[in-house]
Amino acid sequence: MVNFQGKFYNAIDAKGRASIPAKFRDELERVFGDNHLVVTEDKSGVVAYPLPVWKEIVAKIEQLPPGQFRDDLYLTTVSPAIECSFDKQGRVQLSQSMREHAGLVGEEREFVAIGVAKKILLMGREQHAQSRAQAQARLDDNPQSRFDLGL
To answer: From start to end of 16-99, where are the E strands?
Structure first.
């Protein structure tokens, strides 16, 4: 089973390529034996999934009954997805629309790559700081649940 973990800082280069940390590339190779990711938009930036994991997600979405929820998932998640592989320097090409969605354009090209189990999140440093602060505040509202987990 794939398990991406860790937080890494990097930057989008002038051609819109994002370097994926070697630790994540090694995990992808170890579990799946290839270097293919599917990159799509997420509420907090850009998210990358190993190709087999992405195929499972799309299959689940396709099994949903026709309706607004399914249409919304296609519009926000499935339709913008792009399959990609790494270049020799371990980078993936992000489309202009994905970079804009994640706020990784202009002067703001620095991003945080975060491993979250089966996916890799890519978000601007400022967005990451805001999202992390919001998550911490929600956790602070429920300290017993963290204690019950041994945290």
So the answer is: 17-19, 36-42, 45-50, 82-85, 91-93
